[in-house]
C-alpha cells in the first residue's frame, strides 16, 4: 500500500464537509421540514443539526485519536477484526447506494426542470463519467476540486433564500407554537439525513496536516449548512405557506422562479441556479464515490492502479442501480429505506466507536497507573 501525504488544511476539510452535505436535499428541505411542524418547520433543520453534531463530535474525536488512519484501519482496532470488517463493509455499501440515489435525484431534477427532451440515462452517465474521472486521481485532487468549487456553492446558497424573502409574507410564520415535541424529534430525524456526508470525514480526516483544526473545520461546515437550510425553510414558508409547500416536488427551485419575478437581472434565473447546483451535486457524489473506491483500495492494501480499475468497474452497477426506481414516488421510497441504513452507519457506529475507544483508553490508563503505583511501593525488610 502506498503512503499518502497528509496535506489537507483546515479550509480544505471544511470545503469537503460543506460540499458533501449540501446537494440534492437543498431542493426538498422546505417540504420535508413542514410536513409535521407546519409553520414551525424551521425548527426541523436545527433539530437535525443537533442530532448530526453528536456523530460529528465522535468522528472528530476518532480523527484526533487515529491521525493518518481512515475508518478502514481503525474500525478493526476498536471493534476487532470480524465486527470491524462488517462495519467497514456496511459503510462502503451505504456510500455506494447513497451516491446512486443522489445521482438519480439529480437526473430527475435536470430532466423535469431544464432538459425535458434529454434521456435520463444520458444525464446520469455524463455525471458518473465525471465522477469516475475524479476517482482516477490521488486524494489530493478531491481536496482541490472541493476548494475550487466551494465559492460557487456558498454565494447562491445564501443569496437565493435572502432575495426570495423580498416576497415574504411574515404572517405565514405565525403562530410561534409547537403542538407536539414528538413531531419535532421525528422531523429532526428526517432532516438529519440532509446533513449526511459528514461521515466521509472518517476517510478525509486521515489526510489532514498535523496542525489542521478538525473541530473548527467540522463546526464551520455544520454551522454554514445549518444557516443555509434554515434560511431555505423560512423563505419557503414565508413565500408559499406550509400548505402550498406540500404540493411542490422541488420547493427551493420554485423559490428561485419567484426570485426571478422579483425583477432580478436574469430572465431564466433557475437555469443559472441549476448550473451552479450541478457543481454542488458533482462534489457531493464525487466525495461519496471517491470515499467508496478509496476505502476499497485501503482495505485491500492496493495502489492507485487498483483504484482506477475499481472506479470503472463499479460505475456499471452504480448506473444500473440509479435506474431501478421506476418513478419519482418509488425513488423517494428508496430514499426512505436508505435513511434507515444511514442511522446505523452515520450515527450509531461513529458514536459507538468513540465511546468504546474512550472507555478502553480509560481502563488501560487506570491499569497502567495501578502498575506504576505498585512498582513505587518498596517491600518491607
How would you characterize this protein structure?
- The protein has helices at 10-21, 29-37, 43-65, 71-79, 81-113, 120-135, 139-164, 181-191, 201-204, 214-240, 242-245, 251-261, 269-299, 304-322, 328-376.
- With 381 residues, the protein is mostly helical.
- It has a single domain (10-364), classed as Amino acid/polyamine transporter I (Up-down Bundle), CATH 1.20.1740.
- Helix 2 (29-37) crosses helix 10, helix 5 packs across helix 6 (120-135) and helix 6 (120-135) packs across helix 13 (269-299).
- It is globular and about 70 Å long.
Labels describing this entry:
single chain, 381 residues, mainly alpha, Amino acid/polyamine transporter I, 15 helices, globular, disordered C terminus
Could you say which overall geometry the principal axes of the C-alpha atoms support? globular
The CATH topology comes to Amino acid/polyamine transporter I
Percent in helix: over 70%
Determine the CATH superfamily: Amino acid/polyamine transporter I
What count of domains describes the coordinates? 1
Instruction: Note the gap between the termini.
Output: 57 Å
Q: Major sheet: size, sense and barrel closure?
A: none
Count the strands? Answer: 0
Mean pLDDT score: 87
Beta-strand content estimate: under 5%
Q: What is the H/E string?
A: HHHHHHHHHHHHHHH
Structural class: mainly alpha
Number of helices: 15
- Residue windows where pLDDT falls under 50 for at least 5 positions: 377-381
CATH class wording: Mainly Alpha
**What gyration radius follows from the Cα positions, in whole Å?**
22 Å
The CATH architecture name reads Up-down Bundle
Amino acid at each position: 500500500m502506498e503512503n499518502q501525504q497528509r496535506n489537507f488544511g483546515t479550509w480544505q476539510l471544511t470545503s469537503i464537509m460543506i460540499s458533501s452535505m449540501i446537494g440534492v436535499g437543498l431542493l426538498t428541505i422546505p417540504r420535508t421540514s413542514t410536513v409535521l411542524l407546519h409553520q414551525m418547520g424551521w425548527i426541523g433543520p436545527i433539530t437535525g443539526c443537533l442530532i448530526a453534531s453528536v456523530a460529528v463530535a465522535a468522528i472528530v474525536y476518532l480523527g484526533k485519536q487515529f491521525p493518518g488512519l481512515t475508518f478502514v484501519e481503525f474500525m478493526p482496532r476498536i471493534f476487532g477484526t470480524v465486527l470491524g470488517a462488517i462495519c467497514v463493509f456496511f459503510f462502503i455499501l451505504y456510500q455506494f447506494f447513497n451516491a446512486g440515489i443522489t445521482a438519480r435525484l439529480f437526473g430527475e431534477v435536470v430532466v423535469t426542470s431544464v432538459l425535458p427532451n434529454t434521456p435520463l440515462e444520458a444525464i446520469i452517465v455524463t455525471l458518473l463519467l465525471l465522477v469516475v474521472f475524479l476517482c482516477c486521481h490521488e486524494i489530493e485532487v478531491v481536496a482541490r476540486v472541493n476548494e475550487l468549487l466551494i465559492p460557487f456553492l456558498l454565494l447562491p446558497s445564501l443569496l437565493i433564500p435572502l432575495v426570495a424573502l423580498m416576497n415574504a409574507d411574515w404572517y405565514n410564520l405565525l403562530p410561534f407554537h409547537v403542538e407536539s415535541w414528538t413531531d419535532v424529534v421525528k422531523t429532526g430525524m428526517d432532516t438529519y439525513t440532509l446533513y449526511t456526508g459528514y461521515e466521509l470525514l472518517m476517510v478525509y480526516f486521515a489526510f489532514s496536516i498535523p496542525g489542521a483544526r478538525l473541530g473548527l473545520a467540522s463546526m464551520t461546515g455544520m454551522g454554514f449548512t445549518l444557516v443555509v437550510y434554515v434560511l431555505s425553510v423560512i423563505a419557503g414558508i414565508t413565500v408559499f405557506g406550509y400548505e402550498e409547500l406540500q404540493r411542490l416536488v422541488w420547493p427551493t427551485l420554485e423559490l428561485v422562479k419567484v426570485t426571478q419575478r422579483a425583477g432580478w437581472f436574469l430572465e431564466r434565473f433557475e437555469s443559472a441556479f441549476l448550473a451552479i447546483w450541478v457543481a454542488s451535486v458533482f462534489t457531493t457524489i464525487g466525495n461519496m464515490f471517491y470515499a467508496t473506491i478509496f476505502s476499497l483500495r485501503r482495505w485491500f492494501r492496493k495502489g492507485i492502479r487498483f483504484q482506477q480499475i475499481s472506479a470503472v468497474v463499479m460505475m456499471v452497477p452504480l448506473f444500473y442501480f440509479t435506474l431501478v426506481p421506476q418513478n419519482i414516488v418509488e425513488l423517494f421510497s428508496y430514499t426512505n429505506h436508505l435513511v434507515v441504513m444511514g442511522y446505523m452507519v452515520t450515527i450509531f457506529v461513529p458514536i459507538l466507536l468513540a465511546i468504546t475507544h474512550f472507555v478502553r483508553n480509560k481502563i488501560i490508563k487506570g491499569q497502567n497507573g495501578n502498575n506504576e503505583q505498585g512498582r513505587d511501593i518498596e517491600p518491607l525488610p
